[in-house]
C-alpha cells in the first residue's frame, strides 16, 4: 500500500498551518470510517486538539470533532509503553530499575498499534462484533508528545515560511511529523465490566437478558483466546446495559473489547508471569459454550482454508510496519493456529471457557521445505507441538 502526502500551506492570523490532503488516510472500502477521520483532521486544523488520556501507561488520546464530541481513541506507535516518545515515565523507571522484568518477553516490542488493528480484523472475520472498529491512521497534533528537535524544526520552518515564502515552499514538510497509530472508534454508554458485574450480582438479570450477556461474554472469550490477549482484566472490557424498554436497540446488553494492544505473542508466556484471562474467574466461564456460539464460529475455525486466509490478511497488515520480521510473524501465527485448534476442539467437546484455558498449550508451525541455496520456503504442511514450559507464577 502506498501513501501519498500532499501538503498545502495556508495562513490563519499569524500562524502558518498545514493541511493534510489526498490519500494519506484513505479508506476506499470504508467511506464511513474515512469520513470520521476527515472530521478529526478538520477539528485539529480548527484548534480542537486531541486530549491525552490520564489512565494507562502510554500516550493515548481522545480525538474529537469540531464540536468537541469524542470520535475515537488514538494510540501512536511512538508513544506506546516502551516507545521512545512515551510521555508517561512509569515504564521508563520500570526499565531503569527492574530491567530483568522489563516488558513482556512473549511479545514483539512496539507492535501495540498493530495488535489493536489486528484484533479488530479478527473480530470482523469471525463475526463476533465485540471490538469497536479499529484501523491504522496518521494524525498530527500539537498535543501529541514530540521531542524537542521536532518541535524546534517545526517552529523554524514556519518562521522561514512566513518571513521568506519562496524558501519555505521548498520544504518537504512544514509542521510537526505525522504519527502512525491505531484509531479505535469511541463507544458511548458503556461502563467497565466490573461496574456492571457487581450490579448483576446484587440485582440478578432476567433469564433472557442473562442469556444475552452469556452470548456476548462467549464472543469476548473467543476473541481473547484466538489472539492470546496477555492483558485482559475486568477493567478493559466494557458492558452497555439498557433495561428492557429503555433502549432503542434489539440487544439489552452489549460488550466492547477495548485495549487489545498486548496480544499476538510469538510464544506462549513461559517466563515469570502467565498473563491469565481474568474473565476465567467469572461465573460465566463455568457455563459450556452455547449452540449459538458454536454455530457462529466453529465451521470457520475448523476450516484450514479460512485460517490460512486469516493469516494472510494479518500478514498484509503486519508487513506494513517498518520493523516487520517475517520469521517472528510466522511464530505469532503458529501460536494463533494452536489457539484456534484448541478452541475448535473445545467447542466440539462442549467445554466451558475455564476448561478451554486449562487445555495443553499448542503451537502449529508451517513446515519448512527445501530451497535453492540459502533460500528456505514454507510449505502447506503443518506440525503440531505442545508447549510444556510454564511461567514461574502460574494459576492454570
From TrEMBL:
Reaction(s) catalysed by this chain's protein: a 1,2-diacyl-sn-glycero-3-phospho-(1D-myo-inositol) + ATP = a 1,2-diacyl-sn-glycero-3-phospho-(1D-myo-inositol 4-phosphate) + ADP + H(+)
Keyword annotations of the record: ATP-binding, Cell membrane, Cytoplasm, Endoplasmic reticulum, Endosome, Golgi apparatus, Kinase, Lipid metabolism, Membrane, Nucleotide-binding, Transferase
Gene Ontology biological process: endosome organization; Golgi organization; phosphatidylinositol phosphate biosynthetic process
A GO CC annotation given for this chain: plasma membrane
EC number(s) reported in the record: 2.7.1.67
Subcellular location: Cell membrane; Cytoplasm, Cytosol; Early endosome membrane; Endoplasmic reticulum membrane
InterPro entries: Lsb6/PI4K2 (IPR039756), PI3/4_kinase_cat_dom (IPR000403)
Annotated PANTHER family: PHOSPHATIDYLINOSITOL 4-KINASE TYPE 2-BETA, PHOSPHATIDYLINOSITOL 4-KINASE TYPE-II
Protein name (Swiss-Prot/TrEMBL): Phosphatidylinositol 4-kinase type 2
Organism encoding this protein: Oncorhynchus mykiss (Rainbow trout)
Amino acid at each position: 500500500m502506498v501513501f501519498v502526502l500532499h501538503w498545502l500551506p495556508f495562513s490563519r492570523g499569524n500562524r502558518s498551518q498545514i493541511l493534510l490532503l489526498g490519500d494519506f488516510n484513505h479508506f476506499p472500502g470504508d467511506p464511513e470510517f474515512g469520513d470520521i477521520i476527515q472530521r478529526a483532521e478538520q477539528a485539529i486544523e480548527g484548534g480542537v486538539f486531541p486530549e491525552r488520556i490520564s489512565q494507562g501507561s502510554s500516550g493515548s488520546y481522545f480525538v474529537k470533532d469540531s464540536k468537541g464530541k469524542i470520535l475515537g481513541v488514538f494510540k501512536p506507535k511512538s508513544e506506546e509503553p516502551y516507545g521512545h516518545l512515551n510521555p508517561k515515565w512509569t515504564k521508563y523507571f520500570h526499565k531503569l530499575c527492574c530491567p530483568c522484568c522489563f516488558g513482556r518477553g512473549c511479545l514483539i516490542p512496539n507492535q501495540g498499534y498493530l495488535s489493536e488493528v489486528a484484533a479488530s480484523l479478527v473480530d470482523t472475520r469471525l463475526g463476533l462484533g465485540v471490538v469497536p472498529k479499529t484501523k491504522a491512521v496518521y494524525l498530527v497534533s500539537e498535543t501529541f508528545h514530540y521531542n524537542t528537535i521536532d518541535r524546534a524544526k517545526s517552529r523554524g520552518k514556519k518562521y522561514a515560511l512566513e518571513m521568506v515564502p519562496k524558501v519555505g515552499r521548498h520544504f518537504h514538510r512544514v509542521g510537526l511529523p505525522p504519527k502512525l497509530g491505531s484509531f479505535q472508534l469511541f463507544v458511548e454508554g458503556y461502563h467497565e465490566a466490573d461496574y456492571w458485574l457487581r450490579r448483576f450480582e446484587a440485582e440478578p438479570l432476567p433469564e433472557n437478558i442473562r442469556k444475552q450477556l452469556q452470548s456476548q461474554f462467549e464472543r469476548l472469550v473467543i476473541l481473547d483466546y484466538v489472539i492470546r490477549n496477555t492483558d485482559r482484566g475486568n477493567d478493559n472490557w466494557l458492558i452497555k446495559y439498557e433495561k428492557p424498554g429503555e433502549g432503542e436497540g434489539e440487544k439489552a446488553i452489549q460488550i466492547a473489547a477495548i485495549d487489545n494492544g498486548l496480544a499476538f505473542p510469538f510464544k506462549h508466556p513461559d517466563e515469570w508471569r502467565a498473563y491469565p484471562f481474568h474473565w476465567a474467574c467469572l461465573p460465566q466461564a463455568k457455563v459450556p459454550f452455547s449452540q449459538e456460539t458454536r454455530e457462529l464460529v466453529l465451521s470457520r475455525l475448523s476450516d484450514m482454508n479460512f485460517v490460512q486466509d486469516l493469516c494472510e490478511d494479518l500478514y498484509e497488515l503486519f508487513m506494513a510496519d517498518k520493523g516487520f520480521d517475517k520469521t517472528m510473524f510466522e511464530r505469532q501465527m503458529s501460536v494463533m493456529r494452536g489457539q484456534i485448534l484448541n478452541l475448535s476442539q473445545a467447542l466440539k467437546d462442549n467445554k466451558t471457557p475455564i476448561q478451554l484455558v486449562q487445555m495443553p498449550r499448542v503451537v502449529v508451525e508451517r513446515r519448512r521445505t527445501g530451497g535453492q541455496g540459502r533460500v528456505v520456503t514454507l510449505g502447506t504442511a503443518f506440525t503440531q507441538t505442545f508447549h510444556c514450559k510454564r511461567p514461574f507464577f502460574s494459576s492454570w
